[in-house]
Write a structure and sequence with these properties.
alpha/beta, 7-stranded mixed sheet, binds pyridoxal-5'-phosphate
C-alpha cells in the first residue's frame, strides 16, 4: 500500500550529503571489517573532568527539573560575557546580547527564521557546513547566492564581488570547516566595514572552532563590528558534542529577534549542560585555555602533522592551516573513486563535493580518532593509487 503521507516541498532536498557514505560504511562494519573513521568532526578525547562534574552536580539542583529559561540562566550568560571579554577583549551585556543555544547547529538554522523572508538572498560560502544552504536558506524559501572559497584566495570570500547583491543573510565560518582556513585580521576589518555599510544585511558568523587553533587565537567578528551575530559551541572546545550546548552573542536587536524565534520553538537548553558550558568558560584565564584543552590542541596538531607528512610523501597537495582538526587535501578530478577505494580498504573519509560543488576534487580528513587509527589511515592511503 502506498502511504498517503506527503511531505512538505521544503524537504525536496537532495539526500543529506554524507548519508549515502554512512550507509556504505555501516555495511562494511556489519561485515565485521575494521573501519577507520576520519569522516566526522566528533572528538575522540574525553571532556575535562570538571566539565563532566558540573553536569553531575547540577542534576542535584532542583533548577534542573524545571523548564530552563529560553535565553539561558543569567549566571551562565554572565560566564559567557566574562569569557568574551577575557578571550576577545569585547564587552557584551549578558542581559541583551547573549542567548544560550542547543549547540550551534540549531542556532545557525534558527537565525534564518529570524531575518529571512521568502525570496530574500542568503549568501552561503562554498565549500561549507551544509546547514547554511539547507536549513539556513532552503527551509526559509531564501534564494541562495554561492560564495566560492578557493585555495587561491585562502578560502576567503571576495567581498567586492557581492557589494551590490542585496544580501539579507550572510553566513561565514572561521576557523573554517571543511578547509581549516583562518580569517586574518585584514579580512575581518574589511568584513566589519562591509557589514557596517550594509545595514539590511545580517552576518551570522560561525565560530564553532574558535578554540581549536595551534597558532594565533582566532578573532571574533565583534572585535571589528558590533553589527553581527556570532555563534559559539562547547562541542569542540570541551570535546562534548553530545552535550548540545552553545551560545549566540551579538547586536541586541538581532539577539532579540533570534530569541523570539527560539521562544516559539524550544524551551531552552537543559540546565546541567548550561552549567557545563559555564564551568568550561570560567576555567579560562583571559585568553589562556584550561590545561586539558591546551594538551588536546597539541594532540590534534601532532596528528595533523603526521598525516600531512604521509600525504605529502605521496605527492598529495594538502592545505596547511593552523586551526581545526580537519585536513583538506586535493586529489583532483572527481574525488569519489578515491573515497570509494579508501572505503573498500576500511577508511572512511569525507568527499569535498559533499560541502558544495567547489569542494570537488578535495577530501576532508578529521583527526578526531586515536593516533593508531591515524597511522592506519595513512597506511591505507599510501596503498591507494592516487
Ligand atoms: C562549521 C560548523 N558549525 C557548527 C557546527 C555545529 O556544532 P554544534 O555541535 O555546536 O551543533 C559544526 C559541527 O560540526 C560545524 O562544523
Amino acid at each position: 500500500m502506498t502511504s498517503a503521507f506527503k511531505h512538505s516541498l521544503k524537504l525536496d532536498l537532495p539526500v543529506y550529503p554524507f548519508a549515502d557514505l554512512e550507509r556504505k560504511a555501516s555495511a562494511i562494519r556489519k561485515s565485521g571489517k575494521t573501519l577507520y573513521n576520519l569522516s566526522i568532526g566528533d572528538p575522540d578525547l574525553e571532556p575535562p573532568d570538571f566539565v563532566v562534574d558540573a553536569v553531575k552536580n547540577a542534576l542535584d539542583d532542583p533548577k534542573s527539573h524545571f523548564y530552563p529559561s529560553c535565553r539561558g540562566d543569567m549566571e551562565v550568560r554572565k560566564s559567557v560575557a566574562r569569557w568574551f571579554k577575557g578571550r576577545f577583549g569585547v564587552s557584551i551585556d549578558p542581559e541583551t546580547q547573549v542567548c544560550l543555544t542547543i549547540g550551534c547547529k540549531e542556532a545557525l538554522s534558527q537565525i534564518a527564521k529570524a531575518v529571512v523572508d521568502p525570496g530574500d538572498i542568503v549568501a552561503v560560502p562554498e565549500p561549507s557546513y551544509p546547514v547554511y544552504g539547507r536549513a539556513g536558506c532552503k527551509f526559509v524559501d531564501g534564494k541562495c547566492l554561492t560564495l566560492p572559497l578557493t585555495a587561491e584566495n585562502n578560502f576567503l570570500p571576495d567581498l567586492s564581488s557581492i557589494s551590490n547583491s542585496n544580501i539579507k543573510l550572510l553566513y561565514l565560518n572561521y576557523p573554517n570547516n571543511p578547509t581549516g582556513a583562518e580569517a586574518p585580521e585584514t579580512f575581518l576589518k574589511e568584513l566589519g566595514k562591509f557589514v557596517d555599510k550594509n545595514p539590511e544585511l545580517t552576518l551570522a558568523y560561525d565560530m564553532a572552532y574558535s578554540e581549536m587553533y595551534f597558532g594565533y587565537p582566532p578573532h571574533s567578528i565583534l572585535e571589528f563590528t558590533p553589527n553581527a551575530i556570532e555563534f559559539h559551541s562547547l562541542s569542540k572546545m570541551a570535546s562534548a558534542t553530545g552535550y548540545r550546548i552553545g551560545f549566540a552573542v551579538g547586536e541586541p536587536s538581532l539577539i532579540a529577534a533570534f530569541i523570539k524565534v527560539k521562544e516559539e520553538i524550544d524551551s531552552g537548553a537543559p540546565y546541567p549542560f548550561q552549567k557545563a558550558l559555564s564551568a568550561m568558560l570560567d576555567a579560562y584565564e583571559g585568553i589562556i585555555a584550561p590545561e586539558q584543552l591546551i594538551a588536546y590542541r597539541s594532540i590534534y596538531q601532532a596528528r595533523k602533522s603526521s598525516l600531512i607528512a604521509s600525504l605529502e610523501k605521496q605527492g598529495i597537495s594538502v592545505y596547511h592551516s593552523n586551526a581545526t582538526f580537519y585536513l583538506w587535501f586535493f586529489i583532483g578530478g572527481d574525488e569519489m573513486p578515491f573515497i570509494n577505494k579508501a572505503l573498500q580498504e576500511g577508511l572512511l573519509l569525507t568527499p569535498g563535493s559533499g560541502f558544495g560543488k567547489s569542494g570537488k576534487g578535495w577530501v576532508r580528513a578529521s583527526v578526531t580518532a586515536p593516533d593508531v587509527d591515524i597511522e592506519a589511515a595513512a597506511n591505507i592511503i599510501a596503498k591507494l593509487d592516487v
